[in-house]
User: Which sequence fits this backbone?
């Protein structure tokens, strides 16, 4: 699983991994294996995320 992340300044991949592993509420199979940082997620004219653009080819 791959997560697309729009992170605050100073947040690293290690911080996200630690958060996901340390929360205890997230099952191991639901934790992202890869992370991709982006400035913003593309949206439609109505403000919805364009999820189809982030699916694997």
Assistant:
């Amino acid at each position: 699983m791959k997560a697309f992340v729009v992170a605050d300044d100073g947040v690293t991949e290690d911080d996200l991994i630690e958060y996901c592993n340390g929360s205890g509420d997230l099952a191991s199979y639901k934790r992202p294996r890869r992370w991709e940082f982006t400035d913003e997620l593309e949206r439609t004219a109505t403000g919805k995320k364009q999820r189809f653009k982030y699916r694997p080819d």
Notes: The domain at 2-54 is CATH 3.30.300.30 (GMP Synthetase; Chain A, domain 3).
